[in-house]
C-alpha cells in the first residue's frame, strides 16, 4: 500500500514514513469518524510507542471535551453462571464441567441493587450466561421490579441472544441498555471461536433489533483472541464505524485453564489501549468502559484505559460468595467488599485526575 510522504525526522525504532502515515490516519479518523479497511490495517499493524501516545493524547482530549474529568460507574450483577452456549474462549461455557454454577433469585438481585444504590450506583448491569431458566417472563419481571424500586436508575441487560419479541418486552418493562459484543466481525473467525450453529449473522441481527427497539446498544470484541489477525481487527473497527453503537466493550482475551484455548497467549494490553483510543476518536460520545479484563491483564491498566479515552468503569455488585463461580478467564478478581472496592477505584481515579460520578451516565444522544 502506498504511504503518504512526510517530512519529519525518523523516530527511533519506527520508520518515519509509517509513523507519520499513522498520525495522518489518526487525524483523518478524528475528522471523518471512519476509515477504509486498508487504512485501519495500516494503523493497527505494529504501531510504535509514539503512535500510541499520539492516539492516547488526542483521545484523552476528546473524552475530556465530551465528559470533562467524569467517569461513570456501573454496578455489575452477575446473576447466573449457567450457560447453554459453548464459546471456546469462555470459562463458563457449557462444556466446562468443573465450573460451579449458581443462580440469583429476583430477591437476591434486588438486594444487590439496594446495596449498590446506597453506595451511589445509578446503573445496574444484569449479566449472565445464556440461562434458559430466566425466561422472557422471569427477566421481564426482574426488570419491572428494579424499574419500580429505582426509577432514577438505568438498567442494562447483558444476557446474550434472545428473540426480538423478548428484547421488546424487556425494553417495555423499563430496561434502557443492552450489551452484546459481536466478538469478531469476520464470520470465519467467528466460527473458530464459537460452536457450530452460532453465527455472526444472528449476532448482528440481534444488535440491529436492539438498536431499532431503542436500547442504548453496546457491541465489542476481545483483542488478541485466538486466530485473530490485523484484518479481523480492522473489520471490527469498520463494523463499529457503521453500527455506531452507544457503548463499546473491548478487553484483551485472557485464557481460562478449562477451555480449549487454555494454552493460547493473552491479548496485548498496549494494543487494547491503542484501540480504545481509536474508538474514542471515531465515536466521540461513546460510553467506553475500561474493562475488568484490561485491569486483570496488567496492574494499573484500568487507569491507563481511562487515560486512553475510556469513560466508564464497571464494578462487581454480585454476592462475594458467588463471584468465584463467574470466571470467564483466569485471575478475574473476586475478592473485596463492594464499599471498599468502590472507594479504592474512586481514589485511584482521583490520583490520575478523574472523578467517579453518581450519575446514570446515559449516552448523550439517548432519549430518556
Ligand atoms: N477473555 C476475555 N474476555 C472474555 N469474554 C469471555 N471470555 C473471555 C476471555 N476468556 C468476554 C466476551 C463476552 C464478555 C461478557 O466477556 O467478549 O462477550
Outline the structure in words:
The chain is an alpha/beta fold and 368 residues long. It has a single domain, classed as Aldolase class I (TIM Barrel). It is 43% helix and 13% strand. It has helices spanning 16-32, 37-44, 49-67, 106-118, 136-149, 164-173, 187-193, 200-213, 230-243, 269-282, 292-297, 301-307, 338-351, and strands at residues 70-80, 123-128, 154-158, 177-179, 216-223, 247-252, 312-316, 355-357. The radius of gyration is 20 Å and the shape is globular. 5'-deoxyadenosine binds at residues 89-90, 181, 183, 222, 251, 253-254, 256, 293, 328-329. 5'-deoxyadenosine binds next to loops.
Task: Sum this structure up briefly.
By secondary structure, the protein is an alpha/beta fold. The chain has helices at 16-32, 37-44, 49-67, 106-118, 136-149, 164-173, 187-193, 200-213, 230-243, 269-282, 292-297, 301-307, 338-351; strands spanning 70-80, 123-128, 154-158, 177-179, 216-223, 247-252, 312-316, 355-357.
Protein topology:
Layout: H1 16-32, H2 37-44, H3 49-67, E1 70-80, H4 106-118, E2 123-128, H5 136-149, E3 154-158, H6 164-173, E4 177-179, H7 187-193, H8 200-213, E5 216-223, H9 230-243, E6 247-252, H10 269-282, H11 292-297, H12 301-307, E7 312-316, H13 338-351, E8 355-357
Parallel strand pairs: 1-2, 1-7, 1-8, 2-3, 3-4, 4-5, 5-6
Residues 89-90, 181, 183, 222, 251, 253-254, 256, 293, 328-329 line the site of 5'-deoxyadenosine (5AD).
Low-confidence parts: 1-14
Ligand set: 5'-deoxyadenosine
Number of helices: 13
> Any idea what the radius of gyration is?
20 Å
Residue-averaged pLDDT? 94
The N- and C-terminal alpha carbons lie at a distance of: 46 Å
Task: Characterize the biggest β-sheet.
Answer: 8 strands, parallel
Question: What's the CATH architecture name?
Answer: Alpha-Beta Barrel
User: How much strand?
Assistant: 5-15%
The outline comes out as: globular
Amino acid at each position: 500500500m502506498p504511504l503518504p510522504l512526510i517530512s519529519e525526522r525518523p523516530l527511533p525504532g519506527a520508520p518515519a514514513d509509517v509513523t507519520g502515515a499513522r498520525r495522518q490516519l489518526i487525524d483523518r479518523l478524528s475528522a471523518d469518524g471512519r476509515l477504509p479497511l486498508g487504512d485501519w490495517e495500516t494503523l493497527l499493524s505494529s504501531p510504535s510507542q509514539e503512535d500510541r501516545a499520539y492516539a492516547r493524547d488526542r483521545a484523552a482530549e476528546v473524552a475530556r471535551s465530551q465528559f470533562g474529568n467524569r467517569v461513570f460507574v456501573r454496578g455489575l450483577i452477575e446473576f447466573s453462571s449457567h450457560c447453554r452456549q459453548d464459546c471456546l474462549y469462555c470459562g463458563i461455557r457449557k462444556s466446562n464441567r468443573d465450573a460451579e454454577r449458581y443462580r440469583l433469585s429476583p430477591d437476591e438481585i434486588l438486594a444487590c441493587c439496594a446495596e449498590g444504590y446506597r453506595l451511589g450506583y445509578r446503573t445496574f448491569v444484569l449479566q449472565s450466561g445464556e440461562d434458559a431458566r430466566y425466561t422472557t417472563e422471569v427477566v421481564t419481571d426482574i426488570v419491572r421490579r428494579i424499574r419500580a424500586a429505582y426509577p432514577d436508575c438505568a438498567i442494562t441487560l447483558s444476557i446474550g441472544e434472545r428473540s426480538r419479541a423478548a428484547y421488546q418486552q424487556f425494553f417495555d418493562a423499563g430496561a434502557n441498555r443492552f450489551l452484546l459484543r459481536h466478538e469478531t466481525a469476520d464470520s470465519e473467525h467467528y466460527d473458530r471461536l464459537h460452536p457450530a450453529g452460532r453465527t455472526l449473522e444472528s449476532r448482528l441481527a440481534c444488535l440491529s433489533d436492539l438498536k431499532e427497539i431503542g436500547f442504548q446498544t453496546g457491541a465489542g470484541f476481545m483483542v488478541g483472541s485466538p486466530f485473530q489477525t490485523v484484518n479481523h481487527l480492522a473489520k471490527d473497527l469498520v463494523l463499529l464505524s457503521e453500527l455506531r453503537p452507544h457503548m463499546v466493550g473491548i478487553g484483551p482475551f485472557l485464557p481460562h485453564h478449562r477451555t480449549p484455548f487454555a494454552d493460547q497467549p493473552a491479548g496485548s494490553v498496549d494494543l487494547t489501549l491503542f484501540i480504545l483510543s481509536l474508538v474514542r476518536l471515531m465515536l466521540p460520545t461513546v460510553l467506553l468502559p475500561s474493562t475488568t479484563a484490561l485491569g486483570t491483564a496488567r496492574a494499573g491498566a484500568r487507569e491507563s484505559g481511562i487515560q486512553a479515552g475510556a469513560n466508564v468503569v464497571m464494578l462487581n455488585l454480585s454476592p462475594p460468595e458467588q463471584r468465584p463461580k463467574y470466571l470467564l478467564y483466569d485471575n478475574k478478581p473476586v475478592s473485596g467488599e463492594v464499599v471498599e472496592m468502590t472507594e479504592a477505584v474512586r481514589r485511584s481515579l482521583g490520583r490520575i485526575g478523574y472523578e467517579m460520578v453518581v450519575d446514570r451516565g446515559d449516552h448523550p444522544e439517548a432519549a430518556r
